[in-house]
Design brief:
- The complex is a heterodimer of chains A (322) and B (310).
- Chain A is of the alpha/beta class and 322 residues long.
- Chain A has a domain of 213 residues: Metallo-beta-lactamase, Chain A (4-Layer Sandwich).
- In chain A, strands 1-2-3-4-5-6-7 form a seven-stranded mixed β-sheet. In chain A, strands 8-9-10-11-12 form a five-stranded mixed β-sheet.
- Chain A is globular.
- The termini of chain A are far apart.
- The radius of gyration of chain B is 21 Å and the shape is globular.
- In chain B, strand 4 and strand 5 form a beta hairpin.
- In chain B, strands 1-8-7-4-5-12-11-14-15 form a nine-stranded mixed β-sheet. A six-stranded antiparallel β-sheet of chain B has the order 2-3-6-13-10-9, with no helix packed on it.
- In chain B, 18% of the residues lie in helices and 34% in strands.
- Chain B has six helices and 15 strands.
- Chain B has a single domain, classed as SoxY domain (Immunoglobulin-like), CATH 2.60.40.
- With 310 residues, chain B is an alpha+beta fold.
- The chains are: A alpha/beta (322), B alpha+beta (310).
- Chains A and B meet through helix 1, helix 2, helix 5, helix 8 and helix 9 of A and helix 3, helix 4, strand 3, strand 9 and strand 10 of B.
């Protein structure tokens, strides 16, 4: 037997020192997997429901609804979810459901729970409005770091991908499926709504929330109200909201309108009474919001979104540099 | 509660400890963050090839003795830096933990560069100073209010660099600071992000502009809300801009009588926005607000006060 060389001995010693730490890494390395359960809306159209929660290290950010359409050219997917990992699983699911490849992927708007699964798809498959692409260019990196902070390891390897297909036409024909692309705004500076002519299914993106409180970090409430009025005039069969159950009713439109109207009134009223943000945050919410998931949480966020704008616009100018 | 005996616990009977410089604690703060809840994230981002280096580093860090240091006895926040920080901010004066001093923070933070907080010491009698402190900020002292003719109450926005205990400390006439504490959960980055104004070439034309409004609350009391345009550069931002901030705001009645003074420091958010509760005679028609920044610029605003509307 040859003697153990000094270098080998050192290596052995090093390994012995490191060994007790290894379990920590094996825990970290356990593969995370989302549970994607498709629910058939009609033949050839499925929804993968997001959970009515905030983004956490438990749910990995899978909080937004995803829609999958079948077509003679392949699967059409609306929104890609929160992470690279989610996108991979979504692509596999869409292929399995349709038995075909991916024909097209639409992004409804810039928010990170809707757009960070894009790495699973080819850039030429990804379609978004000019506003969404610009928004991702401006905010994508900061969204990504926020998501890493909130969802942790679920985000591993996730990067910002900009769609190369800019939505300009009002209609996309993909094989036998004709989709009307409605460019609206209000929840963000650009919100894409997709209406399927054959089934009458409408994918509303985050212009509509149902039984889950709407989010407002990039909202313009007056524009949002206009968008909801327009949505209400469309004779759809089923509406897939950005968050919450798909329903045949207009409940999602009405609830979203009521929420943004009531919350805006509450916040504006608080400002006009001279309250500061912490006091506005502590106000009671209307009783009807008791059944709305995350009502208090989203109201708190909304106060922080709206207050600085109100203060800048409405506190009278009283002086300056002398 | 027997304040005298509590004072003794925190002042006379304090266990002597080694002195560390601020810079040393700065390093500790970062390391503590890594050693705590961030560890999973930290390792999840490390490439496999860097593993031995990371292991070596973590073992080296674990060997540094300062982690073994106990938090200040009785501190409800169990903060590793509070003991030395309190000594510095209170200049050695005695202090007690007092739940009657409220510090209110939101349960969720939307903007790490503008976290709304309220410090409220109205429950403990006459207060001569009210300080706001964020333990784990790179610059911890946020502001000190001297409520000459005002309630010991201030709402303001602050920048945070990570989740941190936030304190409201009220000095009573017997020379004792009463400290209320809460924990603010936040991701951070607010102190090192460049001011929004730095993206706007025209910020110098609006700097110092002061907006304000007064709400009469009762005969003799009023609520003053203020917003002053200023980049409030911390000097820590990645763009290298040196510290530049409003350091003092004086609120006076029409006769020049002091109502309140606020000494501000770097952690106060860009475009400082405040709420104060002032004593204001029913006959007073306005208050004067004088601001001064670290470049010596003086700002002045005259905020009209209408009659009490019932």
């Amino acid at each position: 037997m040859r003697p153990i060389l000094r270098r080998e001995a050192l290596a052995l010693l090093g390994a012995a020192a490191v060994a007790p730490l290894l379990p920590m890494f094996s825990v970290e390395a356990a593969p995370l997997a989302y549970t994607l359960t498709p629910r058939k809306i009609v033949d050839g159209v499925w929804m993968v429901a997001g959970v009515p929660e905030t983004i956490t290290m438990k749910n990995g950010g899978a909080i937004a609804n995803i829609t999958i359409f079948d077509s003679s050219e392949g699967a059409i997917i609306v929104d890609t979810g929160p992470s690279r990992r989610f996108g991979m699983q979504l692509a596999a699911l869409a292929k399995e459901l349709t038995g075909k490849g991916i024909a097209r992927v639409y992004l409804t708007h810039i928010h990170p729970d809707h757009v960070f699964g894009c790495q699973a798809f080819g850039a030429e498959q990804l379609a978004g409005t000019e506003g969404t692409i610009k928004g991702l260019r401006d905010f994508g990196e900061s969204f990504a770091s926020a998501m890493y902070g909130l969802a942790g390891d679920w985000m591993r390897g996730t990067e910002v991908i900009l769609p190369t297909r800019v939505i300009k036409d009002p209609v996309d024909d993909i094989g036998d499926r004709r989709l009307r692309l409605l460019r609206m705004k209000g929840h963000t500076a650009s919100d894409l709504v997709i209406f399927d002519e054959e089934t009458g299914i409408i994918v509303a993106g985050d212009l509509v929330f149902l039984d889950r409180a709407p989010t407002t970090p990039h909202a313009s409430i007056p524009e949002w109200k206009v968008a909801l009025a327009n949505l209400g005039a469309i004779p759809f069969s089923t509406m897939v909201p950005g968050h919450g159950p798909a329903e045949e009713s207009v409940r999602g439109i009405e609830q979203t309108r009521r929420w943004i109207t009531d919350v805006e009134q509450l916040v504006t009223g608080a400002f006009e009474r001279g309250l500061d943000m912490t006091e506005a945050i502590a106000l009671a919410l209307p009783a009807w919001t008791d059944g709305v998931a995350l009502a208090r949480y989203e109201y708190t966020r909304t106060v922080m979104h709206l207050y600085p704008k109100l203060e800048a616009a409405r506190l009278p100018l009283a002086g300056g540099k002398i | 509660m027997n304040l005298t005996s509590i004072n003794r616990v925190h002042v006379a009977k304090r266990v002597p400890v080694l002195e560390f410089s601020d810079a040393y604690w700065g390093c500790c703060r970062h390391r503590l963050a890594v050693a705590g809840h961030d560890v999973a994230m930290f390792f999840s981002r490390v490439r496999a090839g860097a593993l031995p280096a990371v292991l070596a580093m973590s073992m080296a860090l674990a060997a540094v003795p300062c982690c073994a240091r106990a938090a200040e006895a009785g501190d409800p926040m169990n903060s590793p830096v509070w003991g030395d920080l309190a000594k510095k901010v209170f200049a050695g004066a005695p202090y007690v933990y007092d739940e009657r001093v409220k510090v209110i923070v939101p349960s969720v933070v939307e903007d790490q560069a503008a976290v709304p907080i309220t410090a409220d010491a109205r429950g403990i009698g006459t207060v001569t100073k009210l300080a706001v402190i964020a333990d784990l900020n790179p610059i911890q002292h946020v502001l000190t209010l001297s409520p000459d003719k005002a309630e010991p109450y201030v709402s303001v926005r602050l920048k945070v660099e990570q989740g941190t205990p936030v304190r409201a400390a009220a000095l009573t006439s017997d020379g004792v600071w009463h400290v209320g504490s809460t924990y603010l959960d936040a991701m951070g980055g607010g102190c090192t992000a460049p001011a929004m104004a730095r993206k706007d070439a025209d910020w110098t034309t609006t700097v110092g502009q002061t907006q304000g409004r007064i709400w009469r609350e009762s005969e003799g009391t009023a609520r003053l809300r203020l917003r002053m345009r200023h980049p409030m550069d911390t000097g820590l931002a990645k763009d290298g801009t040196p510290a530049f901030f409003i350091e003092r705001v004086d609120v006076k009645d029409p006769d020049g009588g002091k109502l309140a003074t606020v000494e501000m420091y770097e952690p106060v958010s860009e475009d400082p926005t405040m709420t104060l509760l002032i004593t204001l005679a029913p006959s007073a028609t306005a208050v004067t607000v004088d601001g001064r920044d670290t470049a010596g610029e003086i700002f002045r605003a005259n905020i009209p006060a209408g009659p009490l509307v019932r």
